[in-house]
From TrEMBL:
Species of the source: Saponaria officinalis
Keyword Zinc carried by entry: yes
Keywords: Metal-binding, Zinc, Zinc-finger
Lineage of producing organism: Eukaryota, Viridiplantae, Streptophyta, Embryophyta, Tracheophyta
Protein name: SWIM-type domain-containing protein
Keyword Zinc found: yes
Length: 132
């Protein structure tokens, strides 16, 4: 598990440095994360990742659109948390996944610089975070 995280981090840093992704990098991430990564790429392709940044603090959280018919939006920290059911079930409870598709979509969009950027007052961001 630890080596998987180290490989993934190296790939993410490489993508971040160029704001582009190669076929080889996509293959590695797909191998590491499987169907969740495939789903995450669809979310990114559909511009389903928003980065909500507080002003003036600059603190941020991602809001990621789900793929269900309801098109629910989930708040997540790309590396640590998502408010979706899959995060709690597959990542936290069963430990079968390293992260959910929403976290992967947030990480990919941020690495590529393709997030929809939204600035809001720190007070509004605090209210969003208090509802987690």
């Amino acid at each position: 598990m630890k080596s998987t995280i180290m490989v993934a981090e190296a790939v993410w840093k490489s993508i971040e440095s160029t704001h582009s992704v190669t076929d080889d990098q996509l293959e590695i991430l797909n191998f590491l994360f499987g169907k969740n990564f495939e789903r995450a790429t669809r979310i990114v392709d559909q511009r389903g990742v928003k980065k909500l940044s507080g002003d003036p603090s600059g603190r941020s959280i991602f809001q990621v659109v789900g793929e269900s018919r309801k098109r629910e939006e989930y708040l997540c920290f790309a590396e640590h948390y998502c408010g979706c059911y899959s995060f709690f079930y597959d990542v936290v409870s069963r430990g079968e996944q390293l992260c959910c598709k929403h976290q992967l979509a947030a990480r990919l969009a941020a690495s590529l610089g393709s997030c929809v950027e939204i600035k809001l007052p720190d007070e509004e961001l605090a209210i969003l975070l208090s509802n987690l």
